[in-house]
Amino acid sequence: MTRYGMAIDLNRCFGCQACAAACKVANNLPKDLNYNVVYTKQDEGFDDFGMAVAKGSISNDCAGGTRENPVLWFLPVQCQHCENPSCVSVCPTGATYKREDGIVTVDDSRCIGCRSCIMACPYEGVRTMIESEPEYYLDVVVGEADAPKHVAGTVEKCTFCHNLIERGEVPACMQLCPGRARYWGDLDDPESEVSRAIEGREYVKLREDAGTNPNVFYLQ
To answer: Whole-prediction pTM value?
Structure first.
């Protein structure tokens, strides 16, 4: 059985935001809605990712640390498509569910906007409630013809671009990455791109203490 996952090489990511921009366009995301965010980090650890949104995160590309030992790196964050997603168990309508291929998604026709999934998710900011009728920067629809709908009163998040992978493509965030920092594929296939990328590498998963077992690996 397929179990999709992604690896992100933090040594190759230089914070260009191309992944976030590609995601925004491909999914025709409204104003103030992002599935994929790249945080600038001024500290050295993942401890207390904690969230709101990562201790040591800033909005510009200035280094932290000292003049002798500056610290600057980038942390791309989206839904972690967990093996044991806490958002699924708390959803009262079954709107948030895990597909057989491991992708965690939301059925907007069943979502009642109760925010239970947002409160249960240990990765603050990866789920967004659409409060009112979505507004867009452009007067025309952009992105993929089968991009997800954006419905007021529902919760949205990264879908791993399942509409793209179902026709043999890769998630939009990978397509324009100039550093080739992202790897995608079936984690249960040892010959897949993501499995080969992870093999023999040190990696970190966000908030492993939460017990969700994310399927996004951060290569170090």
So the answer is: 0.90
